[in-house]
Design a protein that fits this description.
Blueprint lengths: L6 E3 L6 E2 L8 H11 L5 E11 L2 E10 L4 E9 L5 E3 L9 H11 L2 E3 L34 E5 L11 E7 L2 E8 L7 H7 L3 H8 L7 H15 L6 H29 L3 H22 L19 H25 L3 H7 L7 H7 L3 H5 L7 H4 L20 H27 L18 E8 L4 E8 L5 E7 L2 H11 L8 H8 L3 H5 L1
Parallel strand pairs: 6-7
Antiparallel strand pairs: 1-5, 2-11, 3-4, 4-5, 8-9, 9-10, 11-12, 12-13
Helix pairs in contact: 4-5, 6-7, 6-13, 6-15, 7-8, 8-13
Length: 506
């Protein structure tokens, strides 16, 4: 009888009994992962380790964008510092996940080319590895020099260290060292038994994606607690998510303009972003949407008055943003700083497992709203925006086009929302979770694919909680983007991705 190689989840945020997840011998696990990831339509959503009953278990989730499914399978090892053959040599996108497992549990992945700490968690396996003695890559040469930037930066940027190896002004290599923002978020999800505290934790993971992460958490809890939510609430959550997408994309456009000294584009975009986040504040009392998304219900149901004001604002913002972006993306002086700068090829994006905007600007149609739809996106079709050039221009234009698409989505969602029954349902905090189960929840935030997973024990308590911000995929994409570029182009490359430091450090 053939061994079942993986469980297939067809519905995003559907729980699995732990017994349903096949446990493979590592050789077979290695072969299966390698085989699946040869397909360009598949990528690793998350791969992590957790100790259950003294056994180190590894869970791997691989998404198939063509048939909208997720393959889930595992392997297990004893805790005596196991050595495993690294998958990174054949599937480079797994490099960050194997590094994290190594940091947390001391697993030696033989032949891994870059087995370095990811975030210096306080409960890391090897306490002798500190952020002060990070093993930077170096090249001995009289012709090359190193440039260090950070971890303390000007303005409000979060802490992260960038180490460049340059030949003159040209960047040969960039190594990005993070870990300064580690807060033990995943551990807190386990220690905090109060469900409201967990909600507040979720919307504090990455401040610019409060709604995205809160939604990923709420939908995970609802799946494990078998809580069904109304279509009206699903629509409102999608509206909130699109508002967040519009606000950040416009804000990032302002940052790009500021970096190339185009003050008109900067100040207009900043003003328009403010109009959007003030609309979110009108809705729930917080400009970033904190408190808006909760499991099972809402403390801030959308009202007709807020919906009307929202439509008025987005119509005005759409018109004015179209005007300013026509200037931005037609000025020769700006195009000279955007076009062919920080270029990432489709092959590089596939190799690193890029998600979200970083993937879509390289002609990879990877958008969870389409490939693994959730909430009301299961019913409401979204038109994916993809570009091909993979440069700063593409990442700027992607924001422009996605704002326009999100405006259309908002108009359509509000029209459908008007027809729904306006019954108010409060959040559910006294839920009981399914026992001995694993849940997975994936949401397309503005930056890309957000994933929350949890493992429950015999009593239905959360035994392990895993958070994946899209940035953990895309930091390596940024490092590749600046190769062979002038070091002076790094700031514009960095802002064109706008990755999250704290989303990586957790």
């Amino acid at each position: 009888m053939n061994q079942k190689l993986y469980s297939e989840v067809k519905n995003n945020s559907f729980p699995l009994d732990l017994k349903e997840i096949p446990v493979l011998k590592y050789d077979l696990f290695y072969e299966q992962v390698s085989l699946l990831l040869k397909n360009e339509a598949k990528h690793c959503v998350v791969y992590y380790g957790v100790v259950i009953s003294g056994i180190l278990k590894f869970y791997c989730y691989i998404a198939d964008d063509n048939n909208k499914s997720i393959a889930v399978f595992s392997h297990e090892q004893n805790m005596n510092k196991p050595e495993l053959k690294s998958l990174t040599t054949v599937c480079p996108q797994l490099q960050i996940f194997e590094r994290e497992i190594h940091e947390n549990f001391g697993v030696e992945f033989n032949d891994h080319p870059w087995l370095k700490p990811v975030r210096y968690s306080y409960d890391r396996f090897d306490k002798s590895k500190t952020i002060e003695n990070y093993p930077f890559y170096s090249i001995e040469s009289e012709e090359l020099h190193e440039v260090g930037v950070g971890p303390v930066h000007a303005g409000i940027i979060e802490p992260g260290h960038f180490r460049f190896i340059c030949n003159g002004e040209k960047v040969l290599h960039l190594e990005i060292q993070l870990g300064y923002q580690h807060r033990g978020i995943e551990k807190l999800f386990i220690e905090r038994k109060d469900s409201l505290q967990r909600c507040i934790l979720s919307e504090s993971i990455a401040g610019d994606t409060s709604i995205g992460h809160a939604l990923a958490h709420s939908q995970l809890i609802e799946s494990l607690a078998a809580v069904e939510v109304s279509e009206k609430l699903q629509i409102e959550r999608c509206i909130a998510l699109e508002l967040e997408r519009i606000a950040v994309h416009i804000g990032d456009t302002a940052a790009l303009c500021g970096d190339v000294a185009y003050q008109l584009g900067q100040v207009v975009s900043e003003a328009l972003r403010t109009l959007i986040i003030n609309t979110t504040q009108l809705w729930c009392g917080n400009r970033f949407g904190k408190g808006l998304v909760r499991p099972g219900g809402s403390n801030f149901p959308l009202s007709n008055d807020v919906a009307e004001e929202m439509l008025r604002v987005i119509k005005d913002v759409d018109r004015r943003f179209c005007e300013v972006t026509e200037c931005i993306y037609s000025l020769p002086s700006l195009l000279a700083r955007f076009e062919d700068i920080g270029k990432v090829t489709k092959q590089q994006a596939l190799m690193t497992g890029a998600v979200g905007m970083a993937a879509r600007t390289c002609d990879i149609p990877r958008d969870i709203r389409v490939t693994h739809p959730f909430q009301f996106y299961r019913t409401y079709p979204v038109q994916q925006v993809t570009l091909e050039t993979g440069d700063v221009f593409a990442r700027g234009m992607q924001r422009n086009l996605e704002v326009r698409e999100s405006v259309k989505i908002l108009g359509g969602l509000i029209e459908i929302w008007r027809q729904k029954e306006k019954k108010i349902i409060k959040p559910v905090y006294n839920y009981e979770l399914k026992q001995n189960s694993v849940g997975i929840s994936i949401v397309e935030g503005w930056r890309g694919e957000i994933c929350h997973t949890a493992v429950s024990d015999n009593d239905g308590n959360i035994l392990h909680y895993k958070v994946k911000d899209p940035s953990i995929h895309n930091w390596m994409v940024l490092a590749l983007a600046v190769r062979n570029q002038e070091i002076s182009d790094f700031p514009i490359c960095n802002k064109s991705f706008n990755l999250s430091y704290c989303g990586n450090d957790l």
